[in-house]
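Page 37, top half.
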Amino acid sequence: MEKELLNQVAIVTGGNSGIGKAISFELADRGAHVIILARNKTRNEETKKEINSNGGKVETYSVDVSNSSEVNKAVDEVYSKYGKIDILVSNAGNATPLKYSTEMPLEDFDAVIKTHLFGAFNCVKACGDRMRKRKYGRIVLISSVAGYHGFAGQMNYAVAKHGLVGMGYSLAKEFDGSGVTVNIVQPGIIPTPMCKGVINVSKDNLPEARVGKPEDIAYAVAFFCSPRAGFMNGTPLVIDGGLVIETSVDTSVKKLLSKA
């Protein structure tokens, strides 16, 4: 694989599990020095060992991204050590058990908003001006197709993911012309530990007859992080196997056509 990110410093939040872990592996495979910010120390160490044993370079910090003090401390240490931050992938996320909005505890709404939106805000604030000063940077926000059409029972998640799209558009305008790009990736249904017990969809109901893989997302994120993506800014990229364009009417028509 071409080492197009050789010696670049890449911060990946939530980079020890699911999509984030796949992103960490992909960036490391392309030569980046990956810095994982995530809460779970055990998973951090496990991911670090896996990537290092695969020839990659990774460091981990046990950080709650919704806590600005923890984020600032970690980013300050990274910047002090390397003198730069080339890439920020804001991927840290969480989900709560399915509940109608009228029955959802405020704590559930608050927890999801803080991790997704406060987390992204804290990380961009800690990294953005440092990127601008060097006239180079790649920021990728991991949203979701939930930001397009919502999820019944997960209003808090849909609000957070839609908020990341608005954040991405706004940041792209603020950084325009600075050498720093901001793009948004919106995955479809990806089986990850976070989704276990929350989303259970038959692959027969999906356009491609399969759910996505974390690697499907990681490849796209790696492109957005590369120097070659310099002309892409404020771009929302949906990676869902056609889920957002599929409707119940389409599904019914296809079943009729298959019987014709």
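Page 37, bottom half:
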Amino acid sequence: MLIANNLMINSQEYSVVFVDSRVKNNKKIIDQKNNMVFFVDEENNVNSINVFNKHFANPQNHLLFSLNDEEVSFLQQCASENGLKINNDPKFVYVQIKKREVHPKSEKLFILTVFDGVRDIQIVTNTLESIEGKVLVMAKPGSFTFKGDSVVLGKLMDVESEGMLTGYKTLGLEGEGLIFSTNEQIGKDFVI
């Protein structure tokens, strides 16, 4: 899933497309034909893309939004023409909390086991809304928040965390708290 943000600076339209935050961008590839700049690593994996003179469809008028299949195909084709690789894996998915334990080193943190429809994943969180059996949205490693923060594999007080629970504010959406859903959504992409 590719996420974008349409911007207007000095009367110039452009879009920032967030691809994979795990990619450490250390060079720019300029695509003059398509009027875009790819930020990539040494192996030509794409971190993000600046697309100039273009805004992508944003029917809900969200600050951050998911690109549709046609837009993703266009960007993948442009990347391929430049010898670049785009990771279009899901970034935000519905998961179910299977287990919740208090962190051994902090009463204010919880270790969650969540299920994404394929496998169990461990997350460390501080949210009190994280109750066993609930279905909610998780940000997987490689995703970006609305503020541009990267979601990566990490440790909190010596316990591995493979992502984070996602709330409305994290994605620049209106609403409070975490984003909940039903069992039918487990494993599906959360489309912004």
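Margin note: Residues 146 and 172 are 5 Å apart (CA to CA).
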